[in-house]
Amino acid sequence: MANLDVEEFIQQNRAVADEVETYRGYWESEKHWQPRREFILRNINDFEEPHIDQLLALSMVWANNVFMGCRYSTELLEKVKEMAEGIEVEDAPVFKTRDEIMKKEGR
């Protein structure tokens, strides 16, 4: 679902879109919320009650990886990256591992 598709989905499914807005954490900036919201909307049809919490958890895994550099198992990261395919994040930070930093310094 491209960004335009997400906006179209929101217009056609106002009740779902309004429900998704309730999932925003008070700490989430607009920059973090908009991509996570898109992640949820793109995947919400694959998760029915009572499994919506699983979708919310996966959306947080994806957002934490993208915005804070949190690391998770390879299998989990592959799953959320596949779920997020096509979501564009503006000014996403770039993170380096300790090994990458040490290698660069020649240690």
UniProtKB/TrEMBL annotation:
InterPro entries the record matches: XTBD
Pfam families: XTBD
Domain annotation XRN2-binding (XTBD): ranges: 20-107
Family statement drawn from the similarity comment of this UniProt entry: Belongs to the CARF family.
Protein name listed in UniProt: CDKN2AIP N-terminal-like protein
Lineage of the species this protein comes from: Eukaryota, Metazoa, Chordata, Craniata, Vertebrata
